[in-house]
């Protein structure tokens, strides 16, 4: 059975690598997402589910509009099983048996089933062994994504039968020079004042420049959402609003990467969200 560890830079990079991996058509039944940031791992896992089930899937992107994508977003797709509850100290063997049993039942809609388990390192020895049986003799098109903040707590045998993707906190990856920060801040402040997106769009003519600007917004929104660093750009918004807009702009980045009309998309996003 395939096994390996991929260490990569940044979560968008993880997502792209995963999409390429999924596009190759040889999908391993056990993926582990490891890293301190619960939300970005969850988002990427949901992105994988959308990518697998999307009715209008592109080469490296899901549409986020079709009924499958929408139901996955609302967490009501029958073939996407989500186990978010991480309040219990352990994932008991009964719970794991129930999960693997549900995964054995034939898919209701598509040809696949996907299961996402948060904080999956909570499996004890018996649970992990029960889970291993599923990975050793997987039914076709059944995929498990295990999310964890404690990779070291997994049984080595479980790790060796999975592919591990390492997620890093975004702020470790995205850094901006003082010149960039000042330029982007002026652009955002000017837009907030005038509602005229043209100076921003002119600065984002190249796709790379556009993505860079988007990443700057992500970094600032993230800071505002977590209160990590004092900043003023979005201080009039609540941290909830900043977190919500951060999520939206992460999605926007994904869409921009696979769309030629990135200038138009950015403009419409600015008008709607900012
Ligand atoms: Zn879709």
Secondary structure layout:
Elements (H helix, E strand, L loop, with lengths): L3 E4 L3 H13 L6 E5 L3 H16 L13 H7 L6 E4 L9 H12 L8 E5 L7 H12 L5 E7 L7 H5 L2 E4 L3 H4 L4 H17 L3 H6 L3 H20 L12 H19 L4 H12 L1
Bound molecules: zinc ion (ZN).
Zinc ion binds next to α3.
N→C terminal distance: 48 Å
Strand content: 5-15%
The distinct bound ligands, ions and cofactors come out as: zinc ion
| Largest sheet descriptor | 6 strands, parallel
Describe it.
Strands 1-6-2-5-4-3 form a 6-stranded parallel β-sheet, sandwiched between helices. It is elongated and about 60 Å long. It has 274 residues and is α/β, with parallel strands linked by helices. The protein has 12 helices and 6 strands. Helix 11 (239-257) packs antiparallel against helix 12. The N and C termini lie far apart (48 Å). Helix 4 links the parallel strand 3 and strand 4 (113-117). 52% of the residues lie in helices and 11% in strands. It has 2 domains: 4-171, P-loop containing nucleotide triphosphate hydrolases (Rossmann fold), CATH 3.40.50.300; 174-273. The model is unreliable at 1-10 (pLDDT under 50).
